Amino acid sequence: MKLSVSLFLTTLGLASIATVNQAVAPPGHWCGKPYGSIRHTPVAPTPQINPSPPVITTTKPGFGVQFRYQPYISTDKVGSLVVNVPSNGNYMIHAALADGTVLLPATPVATTSLTQEIGNVILTKVKPQLTAYEITIIFAQGNITVQKSIVQLYRLPAGPKTVKIDRLYGGIIPSNSKTPIFPWYPYVDFGWITGDTSKDMETNLKALKAMGFNSINPDPTWTNVEQVDQMLKICEEIGLYVQISFRYDYTDLKTVVSDVKRWMSSDAVLTWYSTDEPDGTQWISNKPTVNVYNAIKAADPYHPVSLVLNCQKSAGYYTTTSDIYGTDVYPIGISTKGCNATSGDCGCDFCTGSLTEDIISRTNKYWSDYAAQGVQSVPVWMVLQAFSDPGSWWSRAPTPQEFNVMFWLSIIEGYKAIGFWQYPYIPTNPALQKAHEALATQIATVAPTILSSAQLPTSHIGVSGTGAGSTLLAGAWYSPNGLLVIVVNANKVTTKFTITIADTKASATGKNVVSGATVSLKGGAISSQLATLTAGVYEFKL
Questions:
Q1: Residue at which a domain ends, from 421, 450, 479
Q2: CATH number, position 82
Q3: 508 found inside a domain
Q4: Are residues 317 and 421 in the same domain?
Q5: How far is 369 from 14, CA to CA, in rounded Å?
Q6: CATH number, position 403
Q7: What is the 3-state secondary structure (H, E, C) of 378-408?
Q8: Closest CA to 5 of 219, 293, 267, 286
Q9: Domain co-membership, 153 together with 230
Q10: Are residues 529 and 497 in contact, defined by beta-carbon separation less than 8 angstroms?
Q11: Is the dihedral of CA 330, 335, 339, 341 positive or negative?
C-alpha cells in the first residue's frame, strides 16, 4: 500500500484472464478484508476472502510458450518463442496462423527443466497490423498432440517509437536503444519535480539522474499536461526514462487515451503505468483494469503496460491484461497485531515483518498463480519500501543495510526492475539516499549479465551455511562465457557460506562488485563469508 505525505491514496492498479465482476471490496476493506479502524469491529470480509484463482485447464502442467519479444515490428524478419516443457519427455513444437500458414515447422524441443528459446519463427508470413494475431502452438510427441496453446503475436508497422519487452531474460528495451535496461527508479512526487520556478524542473530531474536512477515514476496528479510535455523533453535530453502513471485517472478512459496519444512519440516514455494496487480496493474484480489495458493497447500497441499489485492472493485474477507484472512489499517497521487471514493487512498483506520471507512468500504465491494461467515467462518488477509512516503502519524506514538485502534478494527472486516509494524521502534520509546511489553503480555493472544470461533454478544452486534458504540466499546467472552469483546474508551475524553451481566445474578469479574484493571460484563453488545484512555480488569470466 502506497501513501502520499502520510495520507493513504485510495484510487489504485494489474489485469486478468477474463473480466471478473464479483467481490468488489466494499468501503473500508483492503484485499477483501476489513481494514483500518473497522477491523476492530465485527465487519464481515468480502464473500471471496480466500479465492481460488481461475485455472487454465487447457494448459497442462509444465508447458508454457510465448513469443520472446513484444512487439515485433515489420523490419523484424525472424522471431523466437520462449518455451517450457516437462523435463520427462521428448517434444516437437509447431506454430501456425489461424488459416494454417506455418510460421515454425515441427522443431525438436530440448529435454530440460530450464526455460529455452526456439528460434527461426518466420515473421515475414505475418502481415504487419496494429492488433495482435492469435498463433496456434502445438506440442507433439510423435503424431500425438499433447498440448495446444493460443498465444498473441504483435507484428506492427515500423515507424512509431517502440519499446520492447524481452520475455526470455525479462528486460525492457527503450525506443532509443538496441539493448535492454534494468530500471532502477523512485516514485517521485510530481509537485517536487515541477518545483517553484521555471528552472526547478530541469534542476530536479538532473539531480535524479546524477543519483544514478535511469527511470522515474512521477506520481500524479497533474492538471497541466504541458508540464508533462516539458518533463518528457528534459528526460529525453538527459537520458531518464519515464513511466506515465494513470493511477488516479484509469477509469476515465477518454483522458487516458488522450494522454497516451499525446506522449507516445517521446523517447522518454518507457511504460504506461495503468493502475496502482487495484486489488486493494477492487479485490478480484478486474473489470476496470481490463478496460484501461484494452484502451491503452488500442491507442498505442508500441509501448508496454505495467502496474503493481498489493495483495497476496489476487495475482491469478490479473494475468493477461498487463505486459509487465509488478508487486510492492513493505514489511519494515510493521506490527501484525490485529491482522490475520480474514482481517486487515497491517500495511503489508500476509506479511510477518521479515526482511526476506515476506518477499519470498509473495513471489512464490504469485508465480504459482501465474503458472495456473499457463504463464511461465514474463517480466516482473518489484517496488520496495524506502519510507516510514508512524501514524499508520510503518514505525520506521528500512536501514540502508536492510534495503540492500531487499534489493539484491528481489533480483535473486527474478525481478528485472526495482522501484521504491518515495522520493523525496519520507522522512528525509541521507543515509538511504547514499545507499541508493551506490546500488545504482552496482546494478549498472551487472545488469548486462542479468539481462542476457539464463538465471539458474534453485535446484541448480547449492547453498551451505547458517540460514540457508531463509536468511542466507543465493542466485546465479550462467553462460558459457561467464557466471554471476549473488549471495544475501540476512542473518544477525557474520556468516560463512559455500555456494555450489551444478552447471559448471570451472575455476576462476572474480570480483565482488559490492566491495571490490577478489573472490575465487573453485570447481564451480564459492566459499567466503558476509557480514550481517550484506550482499556479495560475484562476477567471473569463464
A1: 450
A2: 2.60.40
A3: yes
A4: yes
A5: 14
A6: 3.20.20.80
A7: CCEEEEEECCCECCCCECCCCCHHHHHHHHH
A8: 219
A9: no
A10: yes
A11: positive
Q: What 3-state DSSP class applies to 185? A: strand
Contact 519, 538 (CB under 8 A): yes
Given a cut of 80, is residue 57 above it in pLDDT? no
Q: Which residue has the cell 523512485?
A: 186
Residue 164 has pLDDT above 50, yes or no: yes
Q: Strands 78-84 and 534-541: what pairing?
A: unpaired
**Same domain membership, residue 375 and residue 524:** no
- Our measurement of the distance from residue 311's CA atom to the centroid of its chain's CA atoms, rounded to an integer in Å, reads 15
Q: Residue 527's domain spans which residues?
A: 454-541
Confirm whether 306 is domain-assigned.
Answer: yes
Task: Concatenate the DSSP letters of all residues of 515-526 into one string.
Answer: T--EEEEBTTEE
Reduce the DSSP state of residue 414 to 3 states and report it: coil
pLDDT over 90 (residue 230):
yes
Question: What DSSP string describes 285-326?
Answer: --HHHHHHHHHHHHH-TTS-EEEEE--TT-GGGSSSS-SEEE
**For residue 63, which of 369, 372, 321 has the smallest C-alpha distance?**
372
Q: Hey, what's the cell of 497?
A: 557460506
What's the pLDDT at 215?
Answer: 99
Residue 288: C-alpha distances to residues 46, 53, 88, 193, 261 (Å): 18, 18, 41, 29, 20
Q: Is the sign of the CA dihedral 136, 139, 141, 145 positive or negative? A: negative
By CB atoms closer than 10 A (0-12, 13-18, 19+), residue 2 is buried
Cα 531 to chain centroid, rounded: 29
188 in the same domain as 155: no
Cα angle: 191, vertex 193, 197; to 5 degrees: 85
With beta carbons less than 8 A apart as the criterion, state whether 70 and 320 touch: no
Query: What's the pLDDT score for residue 40?
Result: 55
Are the CB atoms for 514 and 536 separated by under 8 Å? Answer: yes
On whether residue 466 sits in a domain, the answer given is yes
> How many domains in the chain?
3
Rounded-to-integer distance, Cα 418 and Cα 420, Å: 7
Please indicate, yes or no, whether the overall pTM of this predicted structure exceeds 0.90.
yes
Query: What is the reported pLDDT for 14?
Result: 30
Helical H runs in 81-195?
190-194
Q: How many helices (H) and strands (E) does the chain have?
A: 9, 33
Which amino acid would we find at residue 104?
Answer: L
